[in-house]
Amino acid sequence: xxxxxxxxxxxxxxxxxxxxxxxxxxxxxxxxxxxxxxxxxxxxxxxxxxxxxxxxxxxxxxxxxxxxxxxxxxxxxxxxxxxxxxxxxxxxxxxxxxxxxxxxxxxxxxxxxxxxxxxxxxxxxxxxxxxxxxxxxxxxxxxxxxxxxxxxxxxxxxxxxxxxxxxxxxxxxxxxxxxxxxxxxxxxxxxxxxxxxxxxxxxxxxxxxxxxxxxxxxxxxxxxxxxxxxxxxxxxxxxxxxxxxxxxxxxxxxxxxxxxxxxxxxxxxxxxxxx
Length: 275
Ligand SMILES: C[S@@+](CC[C@H](N)C(=O)[O-])C[C@H]1O[C@@H](n2cnc3c(N)ncnc32)[C@H](O)[C@@H]1O
What we know:
Layout: H1 4-11, H2 13-20, H3 22-40, E1 47-51, H4 57-64, E2 68-73, H5 76-85, E3 92-96, E4 108-114, H6 123-131, E5 134-145, H7 152-161, H8 186-195, E6 199-206, E7 210-213, H9 216-223, H10 228-233, H11 238-253, E8 256-257, E9 260-263, E10 267-273
Parallel strand pairs: 1-2, 1-4, 2-3, 4-5
Antiparallel strand pairs: 5-10, 6-10, 7-9, 8-9
Helix pairs in contact: 2-5, 6-8, 7-11, 9-11
The structure holds S-adenosylmethionine.
S-adenosylmethionine binds near residues 10, 29 and 75.
C-alpha cells in the first residue's frame, strides 16, 4: 500500500495543473464543499483533518468556521501553493503526509475531504488508519464522484476522443483502482467503511449543474488541462490530436446554450461515525 503511482502523478504535471487551475476548479467544486462543510456542523475548536487538501481552499473554509485544521496531502506543488495562499491564517497547518500511513493521534472530531479519498492503493487500510485519528464521537464527511456517465462535465469530451487513441487503447483503470470514479458504487464504499470500523454510513446525492465555461473556447482551454480529455490528448500528436480536439469541440458544442456550457454532475456526500 505504497501509493507510489499517485505520489508520482500528483507531484508531476497533474499537481502543477491543479495549481494553475485552482481558481477555476474551486469555483466548479464549491457546491460540493459548501454542502459538505454545512453537513460537518463544525463547532469552535474542533480539530479537523482535511484529507487530500490540495491547494487548501477547503482547509481554510473549515478554519473560518472555527476549527483547528490540518490539511494533509501528498502533492508538494499543491501544498506549496496552499501554504503561500494561507500564510499567517490562524488555526491552519499543512503538511506533506500520506493519509494512509500517517501515525495519527486520536484527538480529531472530523475527517473531511473534497474529492481526496479515491486514490488509495488499499482503501480499507487507509480508512482504518484515518479512523484512528478520530475521537470516539468523531465523524467522517467527504464527497466523491458518482459514475462518469452522470458527470457530463467531465465525461463528454473524454468520451468523444476515445476513438482517436492509438491501438491498443490505454487499458481502462481497474474498476475500483485509484481513480476519480473509484467510489461511485455505494456498496463498495459501504464495505470499505464497514471494514475500517465506521458506523452509521449515509450517502446523499449531490447533482448540481456545473458551469464549465461561457463558450466552447473556454471549455476546451480548461479541459485540455484537467480531466479525461487532457489525459487522452497527452497520448496523441499531430493530425490525430487535431482530429480528436475537433471531436471534443463538436461533442461539447451540442450542449452549448445561451448561458454557456452547463453540464450535469453527480457526487456522493458520504457521512459516517467513528464508533
Ligand atoms: C482531486 S484532488 C482534490 C484536491 C482538493 N481536495 C480539492 O478539492 O481541491 C485529490 C487530492 O488528493 C491527494 N491525495 C491522493 N492520495 C493521497 C494520499 N494517500 N494522502 C493524502 N493526499 C492524497 C492528491 O495529491 C490531490 O491533491
